[in-house]
Specification:
CATH topology of chain B: Nucleotidyltransferase, domain 5
Pfam family, one (chain A): Helicase_C
Oligomer: heterodimer
Low-confidence stretches of chain B: 219-227
Shape of chain A: globular
Strand order of the largest sheet of chain B: 1-2-7-6-5-8-9
Keywords (chain A): ATP-binding, Helicase, Hydrolase, Nucleotide-binding
Number of strands of chain B: 9
Protein name (chain A): DEAD/DEAH box helicase
Structural class of chain A: alpha/beta
Mean pLDDT of chain A: 86
GO molecular function (chain A): helicase activity
Structural class of chain B: alpha+beta
Helix content of chain A: 25-40%
Distance between the termini of chain A: 64 Å
Mean pLDDT of chain B: 92
Largest sheet of chain B: 7 strands, mixed
InterPro entries (chain A): DEAD/DEAH_box_helicase_dom, Helicase_ATP-bd, Helicase_C-like, HRQ1_WHD, MZB, P-loop_NTPase
Low-confidence stretches of chain A: none
Largest sheet of chain A: 8 strands, antiparallel
Number of helices of chain B: 6
Number of domains of chain B: 1
Order of helices and strands of chain B: EEEEEEEHEHEHHHH
């Protein structure tokens, strides 16, 4: 590739004068780009609060700490020590890099040294587990403590497993391994369980939604197995900031928990800027792309000699932004790279290498997905740029928390995308500043999940009598499993009888199991270059897709769905691809109904089908759409719960000139309802989805290229409705997980608020006819129309608002 | 159900047959042991289980064991449970057949039968009587010697090649779980009897393969390259 001249040099020079830190850069950006900054505030740093090393710490451990330069504890570490020594279950909730791990390391090591007690650590990812063991080994070595810590995960070789089971004092694993490898083989771990004293669960904020509901059930199974071995381990949980740490920890382990939420770690000031890209077309509410702005801010920070971390929402965007930054900083192939991408889907060795380089400080810019949101140790950074709102306040603060070295000022910039939720937030900075972090929710008693785990539990130990699992006696579930033929009842015992290993059929993290591997066939060889998880496949690995790995484009030639493989070849194109997907719903069961203005609101169970219909080719830099391609993949189906609103046909006929108008109104109303609902229940936006369709599932509505509602039939093809066919368009907001995880019930309770809030949002929006911040993007032609999309959406909402 | 009900739901079948003439000492060089083992110490064993899935949910419903008596005759004993509750009695009975100096003989038993029984003893809260016993697993020497020569190294192949055993009306091992389950659910015992028959033949073949293998010494691999 040819070296490009730095075409930004001149404009960048205006901003960059003299040395920089987070505060200086925040000030310069605010001055130069005042009109783009919608909010600016400072989270003040704080002094450290310290406590002496506890007197009851084993002397060798105290010595080890001192030899590593730790002469005192932060106050939260000392509190955690006291609470664990009282035998309490403890949850520690403090910011990134506040020394959380010492909160559990001290009691665990102390118990191991004094009583030979064992501990199980659970981390959500293998990478975190490996970091943790490396730390433990260092401390162990420093103090010659004689405590053995091992990781136990899918990569642990078979011959090492026996030794770990017998000799590990601290076994560091993840919930998936506990679920699939440890609990179903608990007899091999008998010695470990008989001496198990502590269970440490870090990053518990990641255990929410479906994943969290599964993990809560794995913990139920863990406790059941522990009871068999006559032990009751103590739990220590850690979390990044969430709104309900105590409640969430208690929901996970179903025991009272002492929450420690005051961090004693010192921190520097954190400057936060909310950044809205400049308006390009004010009439249409069209703005410059977030990506161009993110690129600019990151570029300026790196040029100012700061270390920057950019978070992007998708793997594709990670690659695009990496390419842009590399075009500026890494055009000389003789020099070591200064920019790196980091995301899931790279092979573990590649991720480890990236982590090492980042810690070593040779990398100046990192572009990452949420993979770096967790406590992966990558050293210190000065600036964090979010390319788009990550979907929750908690994630936003957690990502900002990545920046900050000790007492130095750090900068976090949220660059709003055109996504309506982003626009809503940057235009309401007061909401952003004042918003408490989200609550983590789980639904451990969700029937499908519960049944899965009762099945696994029955394999591990027979159920006897009226044994309770979760919400009550397991008996009715056992009867189901008996009828299925996997359990055999004899007297009051339910014994596993099937020749199967149920944990293998239950994935904690996704609906359908099985990662896809990406196989590079360039030059006739076959090399595995990446892994992609199942749910991302339909939108990233369709045939024709450009799949980027460290900014090198590969084209997908063939997708072997059954074999879980995508075959790609190296390519040299100047575009990337973006999937176009559609959703249709059908109501299966209605749990509750009420009137909603002149219409009705309901909640209940629905069947959702999601289909990727095709993809767009988008050229780099100009972002013009240069073509389409078809995609032919199996539909993704799920049963879940939803809340929905509909209006009777006669109401629509009175209010609208035609069906097209009504459809456009419903699309706009759905758009606005989805924004306010996402904020109202503090859901992550991807967990809550919207759709407009017919009440009977016969058709659904998709936006066409012009942004107008277009009827599509069951096959996804555009269709026309016979003039005498029934017409009851319906707005659905649905839980994007199989079975639902409890979002639709609170939405139904707040149905009147939601409609009112959506109306306010649309009504008070600055735009003329509708824009991405209220009813969705519209065309210039609609601007002049008498019935603008905005007016139509308001009319639908007006009919639904409580009288 | 054949045999005698020695505890509720636990049946014992016994047969004493003439089967080969072992030397008084078995050469164990093939297993890289230092000393020969007295034939009287040997106990051949083989379990029939509810499946191959592994883990805590798989159990043995039949344990067969066989040894040569002082008079040179081959005594085959099989324990079969017809209720889940009888498992503990079966495990205790089998433990009673083992002495401190017993040497186990099996085919893939080190990887399969012994760990499975270890799990069952643990779940029954009983000490594992197999712990510390010598164990000659014949799969390994057979593999070392005949891998790549025979189409596979399963016991059925070894017995045909080495002993000329051809089974008649044999119930394949893979159908054993279904046979037991059918009986448990009130079906006929026909197939369960065939499982017992199969298990008894396995024990005879084990003993036969042992005598052939023990003559090999620390056998070098076959002249065929091993992939």
């Amino acid at each position: 590739m040819n070296a490009l001249p730095d075409r930004y040099q001149a404009s960048d020079d205006l901003v960059l004068r003299g040395p920089s830190d987070g505060r200086a850069l925040a000030q310069r950006l605010s001055k130069r780009y005042a009109e783009r900054i919608t909010g600016s505030f400072v989270v003040p740093g704080r002094e450290g609060s310290f406590a002496p090393l506890p007197a009851d710490l084993p002397p060798a451990l105290a010595h080890a700490l001192r030899s590593r330069g730790i002469d005192a504890l932060y106050s939260h570490q000392a509190e955690a020590w006291v609470a664990t020594q009282r035998g309490e279950q403890v949850a520690i909730v403090t910011p990134t890099a506040s020394g959380k791990s010492l909160c559990y390391t001290l009691p665990v090591l102390s118990a191991a040294m004094k009583q030979g007690a064992k501990a199980l650590y659970l981390f959500p990812t293998k990478a975190l587990a490996q970091d943790q063991v490396a730390d433990l080994l260092e401390l162990n070595k420093a103090g010659e403590l004689g405590v053995k810590a091992f990781t136990f995960d899918g990569d642990t070789p078979g011959d090492a497993r026996q030794a770990i089971r017998l000799h590990g004092d601290i076994v560091v694993s993840n919930p998936d391994m506990l679920h699939q490898a440890i609990l179903p083989h608990h007899t091999k771990w008998a010695q470990f369980f008989e001496n198990l004293r502590y269970v440490v669960i870090d990053e518990v904020h990641t255990y929410r939604g479906v994943f969290g509901s599964h993990v809560a059930n794995v913990i139920r199974r863990l406790k059941r197995v522990c009871a068999f071995y006559g032990v009751t381990p103590q739990f220590i949980l850690c979390s990044a900031t969430i709104g309900n740490p105590k409640e969430h920890a208690e929901a996970l382990i179903e025991q009272p928990v002492t929450a420690i939420t005051q961090s004693g770690a010192p921190s520097g000031d954190r400057h936060v800027l909310l950044w809205n890209p400049p308006v390009i077309n004010p009439d249409l509410g069209l703005r410059a792309s977030a990506r161009s702005q993110t690129n600019r801010i990151a570029r300026l920070a790196i040029k100012a000699g700061m270390k920057a971390l950019v978070f992007a929402q998708s793997r594709t965007m990670v690659e695009v932004l990496t390419k842009y930054l590399k075009d500026v900083f890494d055009h000389d192939p003789r020099k070591p790279p200064r920019i790196r991408a980091y995301r899931g889907g790279y092979l573990p060795t590649e991720r480890r290498a990236a982590e090492r380089e980042m810690r070593a400080g040779s990398i100046d810019g990192i572009v990452s997905t949420s993979a770096l949101e967790l406590g992966v140790d990558i050293g210190s950074l000065d600036v964090v740029v979010l390319n788009g709102y990550p979907g929750s306040m908690a994630a936003t603060w957690q990502r900002f928390g990545r920046a900050g070295r000790r007492q130095q000022p750090a900068l976090g910039v949220l660059v709003a995308s055109s996504d309506p939720l982003d626009q809503y937030l940057v235009r309401h900075p007061e909401f952003f500043e004042g918003a408490p972090p989200e609550h983590a929710r789980i639904a451990a008693d969700q029937p499908l999940i519960l049944l899965d785990h009762i099945r696994c539990a029955a394999f591990e130990l027979p159920f006897v009598g009226d044994e309770v699992f979760g919400p009550g006696a397991a008996t009715p579930w056992l009867e189901v499993l008996g009828e299925e033929g996997v359990l055999h009842r004899e007297g009051d015992r339910w014994e596993w009888i099937a020749d199967s290993y149920p944990a293998n059929a239950v994935s904690l993290r996704s609906v359908a199991d099985g990662n896809f591997v990406v196989v590079d066939r360039t030059g006739g060889k076959q090399t595995i270059i990446a892994e992609v998880d199942y749910t991302a496949v339909p939108v990233t690995l369709y045939e024709g897709a450009i799949h980027m790995i460290q900014s090198v484009p590969y084209q997908v030639e063939r997708l072997d769905w059954e074999g879980r493989k995508a075959f790609v070849t190296r390519t040299h194109v100047d575009y990337y691809t973006d999937a176009i997907d559609y959703t249709k719903l059908k109501v299966l069961d209605c749990f509750g109904s009420s009137s909603a203005g002149r219409g009705e609101a309901h909640h209940g169970e629905v069947h959702v089908v999601r289909r990727v219909a095709g993809y767009k080719k988008i050229r780099y830099y100009t972002h013009e759409n240069i073509g389409y391609g078809p995609v032919n993949l199996p539909d993704q189906e799920l049963h879940t719960t939803a809340v929905w609103w509909q209006l009777a046909q006669r109401e629509l006929e009175q209010a609208f000139d035609g069906r097209q108008q009504a459809l456009d109104g419903f699309l706009g109303a759905a758009y606005a309802l989805h924004i306010v609902a996402t904020v109202a229940v503090m859901a992550e936006s991807r967990d809550l989805q919207k759709s407009v369709g017919s009440a009977d599932g016969a058709w659904f509505v998709a936006s066409d290229i012009a942004g107008r509602g277009q009827l599509r039939g069951m096959d996804g093809q555009p269709m026309a409705l016979a003039p005498d066919a029934p017409f009851t368009p319906t707005v659905y907001l649905y839980d994007a997980f199989p079975g639902g995880v409890g979002l639709s019930a609170p939405l139904f309770e707040r149905r009147e608020d939601l409609v009112r809030m959506a109306m306010t949002l649309v009504d008070r929006c600055d735009c003329m006819a509708g824009c991405p911040a209220c009813v969705g993007p519209i065309l210039a032609a609609d601007e002049a129309a008498a019935d603008t999309p905005k007016a139509l959406a308001l009319r639908v909402l007006g009919l639904l608002v409580a009288l | 159900m054949p045999g005698e009900e020695i505890a509720s739901g636990l049946f014992l079948t016994e047969a004493v047959v003439d089967w080969l003439s072992p030397p008084p000492l078995i050469d164990t060089t093939f297993a890289r042991w230092d000393e020969a083992v007295g034939t009287a110490r040997l106990l051949h064993f083989d379990t029939e289980t509810t499946g191959l899935a592994g883990g805590t949910g798989t159990r043995a419903f039949m344990i067969g064991a066989a040894h040569w008596e002082q008079n040179g005759r081959f005594r085959i004993r099989q324990l079969t449970i017809t209720t889940m509750a009888a498992e503990t009695a079966m495990l205790r009975t089998f433990a009673g057949w083992l002495r401190d100096d017993t040497v186990l003989v099996s085919y893939n038993g080190k990887s399969y039968d012994a760990p499975l029984l270890a799990t069952r003893y643990r779940l029954a809260r009983l000490p594992n009587p197999l712990t510390g016993l010598g164990h000659l697993d014949l799969l390994h020497p057979v593999r070392r010697r005949w891998k790549g020569v025979w189409e596979n190294c399963r016991l059925a192949t070894a017995e045909r090649q080495l002993l000329g055993v051809v089974r008649d009306d044999d119930l394949p091992g893979s159908e054993a779980p279904a046979a037991w389950l059918a009986y448990l659910r009130g079906g006929p015992a026909t197939n369960l009897r065939r499982v017992a028959h199969h298990n008894a033949q396995d024990l005879r073949s084990l003993a036969g393969v042992l005598l052939r293998v023990s003559g090999l010494g620390a056998c070098p691999p076959a002249a065929v390259p091993i992939a």
